[in-house]
Write a structure and sequence with these properties.
Beta-Lactamase; 5-stranded antiparallel beta sheet; 129 residues; 4 helices; disordered C terminus; alpha+beta
Length: 129
Amino acid sequence: MVLTDREALLDSLRAEAGDALRVVATYDREGYEPVYVRDDLTARLTNRADAVHDELVLQGIGRGHLEDLFGAGDLQCSMHRFEGLTAFHFTAAEFTGLFVSLDSDADIQLASFTEACKRQLSDDESESG
């Protein structure tokens, strides 16, 4: 899908987040593809994947509005911090992107974490990785 090198991404994320890494998934217009799911979250992912996918697509569609609103260049990532997890959403194109979640108490270097994700994204929907 939109990743240039899945293994390099997972290696970078594991180095940054360790056991706090929960889920890594790509998505496109058709659906959601898990790249990594921590063992204790398989059932949760199964129950929530379709609804999360729909929300990510909607956020991607609204990306242009946020870029215009803030006037700070291209939107590279959005983050949602909940009591139980922190979720990162990277849009690659209107209907494609990357979703990464961590335990909420993960202490990561935000700039290097997000750069690791962005480095592996491609906005060419014809690429696969």
